[in-house]
Amino acid sequence: MKKLAYILSKIFFYCFSTVCLFIMVFSILSYFAYKFDMQIPFVEVLESHSKVNVPLLELRINVPFSYSIIIMWSAMLYYTIYFYALKNFFKVFIKKNMFETKSLKRLRFFLKLNLIPIIYIIIFTVSFLLRGDTFSPQDDYFIVFAHLVVAFLIYLYLDILKKGKHVQEENDLTI
Amino acid sequence: MPIIVNLDIILAKRKIKSKDLAETIGITTANLSILKSGKAKAVRFSTLEAICKALDCQPADILEYVED
Description:
Structural class of chain B: mainly alpha
Low-confidence stretches of chain B: none
Number of strands of chain B: 2
CATH architecture of chain B: Orthogonal Bundle
CATH superfamily of chain B: lambda repressor-like DNA-binding domains
GO molecular function (chain B): DNA binding
Number of domains of chain B: 1
Structural class of chain A: mainly alpha
Shape of chain A: elongated
Strand order of the largest sheet of chain A: 1-2-3
Protein name (chain B): Transcriptional regulator
Radius of gyration of chain B: 11 Å
Mean pLDDT of chain B: 89
Distance between the termini of chain B: 8 Å
Number of helices of chain A: 4
Oligomer: heterodimer
Radius of gyration of chain A: 21 Å
Order of helices and strands of chain B: EHHHHHE
InterPro entries (chain B): Cro/C1-type_HTH, Lambda_DNA-bd_dom_sf
Largest sheet of chain A: 3 strands, antiparallel
C-alpha cells in the first residue's frame, strides 16, 4: 500500500511537471505569437490573452499577457516542487530504515512547503484590503486550510520520526 | 559520561588484540571500537558476559564509575 502510494505520487509528479513545463513553454511562445503574429501549435491568440491547449488532457489554459502570468508560473512551480516533496514524503515510509537524518530533512522541507500558502494568503488579503477591492477568497482560504491540516499532520509525523531516530541511535549504540 | 570503559587496559594486560576479542565474542570490530571509546550508550549482559569469559575477568575490571 505504501509502495503503491509512492509509485502513484511519482507518476503524478512526472505527469504534473510535464504539463506545467508544457504550459510554461507555450505561454512564452504564445507571447511571441501575439507580438510577431506567428502561428504556433497548441496556441490560440486572442485580444488580451491567449489559450494554450494541452493535448491528451483537453485542457485550455488562459494565458494573460500581463504580469499576472508570474503568479500563474509561481503557482505551477510551487505545486511542481510540492508534488516532488510529496513523492519524497512517501519514499520515507518505504525505506528499510526510516529513522534517518535524510528522512527528517525531507519531512521538514514538506512541512515548510505546506506553510508557504499562508504567506501567500496574507499578502493576497492585505493587497485586496489596501486597494479596497471586493473579493471572494473562499476557495483560496479552503486551499490554505487544507495545506495547514497537512502541515499539522506532517508536524506530528516529524515528531514521531525524531523520537524514532533517538531510539534508533540508542539501539545502534547498544553493544 | 561518568562510566569509564577500561577494556583497553585489560586487553593490554592479557596481550590480546581487539580484533581477536571481537572474533571471540562475536561482535564487529567497529562495535568493539565504539565500546572502547566510551561512545556506547548501553552494553548487553550477553556481551559483558562474553567479554568477561574471554578475558577471564569481572565486569568491574572493565567498567568503572568516576564522579564528574
